[in-house]
Amino acid sequence: MTVNGRRWTKTGSALEEEVIIYIGSEGPTLTNLMMALNKNSFISYNPDTRSARAESINVNKALMKR
Question: Which of 10, 19, 22, 59 is a Cys-bridge partner for 44, taking CB atoms 3.0 to 4.6 Å apart?
Answer without folding.
Answer: 22
